[in-house]
Amino acid sequence: MNPSFVLVLPFLLPLISAQVPHWGPCPEPSVQAAFNIKQFMGRWFEIAKLPAQFEKGRCIETNFTMKPDNTIRVVSSEILKGELRRIEGTGVTEDIKNPAKLGITYSYVLPYSPYWILATDYVNSALVYSCTDVLRLFHVDFAWILSRSRTLPASTIDKAKDIFTNNNIDVSRMIASRQQGCDKTL
């Protein structure tokens, strides 16, 4: 094993403790063909996800709005400990020839993270994948099943998981997001 990797590993483990690390580089899944970014805009609710350190609450949703400069305003929210928390970021189409491969950042100092739309029908559900290689020795990935409503039929969720699996994305640790009691006043 590389000695420098052994020195860096103790510092990386706390950062990925709630994430889903895997050996080797990120998979290269197929993304939505003929993706229409304008149809994707709007409000999406998180139905299921791979565990993520930055998402600990319930009633998680994201609203995408196209800006005049063709960047995307990304507003994500969750209820955590009885408090509504929001964060605003920016999304971009990273490759105009492949518009389903978006990049999103929630900070001016951080680079864009991959936000790839693997599949969507624009009106019911969307499957999103993000992956970051760490020294090409292992990768940390995130996957979300999104919906235009707070619920999806179990059959739709099962089909979504099959799409991830068929793209070499391990969703065995995927968990349901909590979307109950979201419309109550805080």
3D architecture notes:
The protein has 186 residues and is of the alpha+beta class. Helix content is 17%, strand content 41%. It has 3 helices and 10 strands, in the order αβαββββββββαβ. It has helices spanning 3-16, 37-40, 154-166, and strands spanning 20-23, 42-49, 58-66, 72-80, 83-93, 101-105, 113-120, 125-134, 138-147, 175-176. 26% of the residues are buried. The model is unreliable at 1-18 (pLDDT under 50).
Keywords for this entry:
disordered N terminus; alpha+beta; 10 strands; 186 residues
Helix content: 10-25%
Tally of DSSP helical segments: 3
Give a short account of the largest sheet.
8 strands, antiparallel, barrel
Roughly how many Å is the radius of gyration? 17 Å
Average pLDDT over all residues: 88
Secondary structure: number of strands: 10
What is the general shape?
globular
Spans of 5+ residues with little confidence (pLDDT < 50)? 1-18
- What's the end-to-end separation, in Å? 51 Å
**Residue share in β-strands:** 35-45%
User: What is the spatial order of strands in the main beta sheet?
Assistant: 2-3-4-5-6-7-8-9
Q: By helix and strand content, what is the structural category? A: alpha+beta
Topology as a string of helices (H) and strands (E): HEHEEEEEEEEHE
Topology:
Elements: H1 3-16, E1 20-23, H2 37-40, E2 42-49, E3 58-66, E4 72-80, E5 83-93, E6 101-105, E7 113-120, E8 125-134, E9 138-147, H3 154-166, E10 175-176
Antiparallel strand pairs: 1-9, 2-3, 2-9, 2-10, 3-4, 4-5, 5-6, 6-7, 7-8, 8-9
